[in-house]
Amino acid sequence: MSLELKLSGKTAIVTGGSAGIGLATAKALYSEGVNVAIASRNQERLDRAVADIQSLPTPGAKVIAISADLTKAEDVEKVVSTTLAQFNQIDILINNAGSARAGSFLESTDDLFLDAWNLKLLGYIRLVRAVVPHQKSRGDGRIVNIVGGAGRTPRPNFLAGGTSNAALLNFTKGISKELAEYKIRINAISPGATATERAETLARQNAQAQGITVEQVKAQNIQNIPLKRIAQPEEIAALALFLVSDLAASITGTEIIVDGGSTPGV
Length: 266
Ligand SMILES: NC(=O)c1ccc[n+]([C@@H]2O[C@H](COP(=O)([O-])OP(=O)(O)OC[C@H]3O[C@@H](n4cnc5c(N)ncnc54)[C@H](OP(=O)(O)O)[C@@H]3O)[C@@H](O)[C@H]2O)c1
Fold this sequence. Notes:
47% helix; Rossmann fold; globular; binds NADP nicotinamide-adenine-dinucleotide phosphate; alpha/beta; 7-stranded parallel β-sheet
């Protein structure tokens, strides 16, 4: 049996698609013949990402960049309306843009929590709300929320991100039954440490919070992973592609953890 994803001709929105896990997922989708709209803030990074994606040999597929700050409700609407104007359909939503800060709790202001919740929790929820009416009318939709291990396994220096992730797991599972009525599937992927720019930033913030060096933080991270390896963004992308394909036609309302065995649980 060969695993054919059969995604060619579909259209996807990938938030935070200009870097890290989002860029790897946009490239993987495009390589399968999917039209992709990537959305993030920095235009230069978006332009570089589009050139990077277009360098892949994929006959027929298109990629567009939409400059958007996903903490703003109006920018969420812009991402959806621009994608529909360009491609007429949105089969796939990859909710991925997130940038919660790490830091000690006593130095965490209300704004630090509100920024994390506004971008990731409300940003993901708003995109689902904006995309679902369109997917409902077509009787098909595939949504993946990139969440994170701190949702189930809290870490003291990452409470803003962790609380946002915990709420997103609740949301993903909570909405899945309602969306199933319209043949829309929604799942979460929770990466552990994954080699992106964000992982570098978090290592610096954790080092500062713990009063140790970045190298010590990285060594601790690896030490705590049973498989002793940091995931590559392409591994998260591969799982996202499987989840949005018909190979996962019976999978909805679930969370898949990619953390090298760090948080086994029942
Ligand atoms: N890497 C890890 O170890 C890890 C672990 C667990 C969970 N995750 C989750 O995986 C997701 C992706 O992380 P990553 O490591 O790939 O991050 P990354 O390399 O920092 O990339 C983040 C992407 O999000 C965009 N973004 C940030 N703030 C935005 C905003 N306000 N509006 C629109 N776009 C915004 C960035 O572009 P601009 O800055 O130009 O807007 C960039 O494209 C996040 O939700 C993160 O929490 C990552």
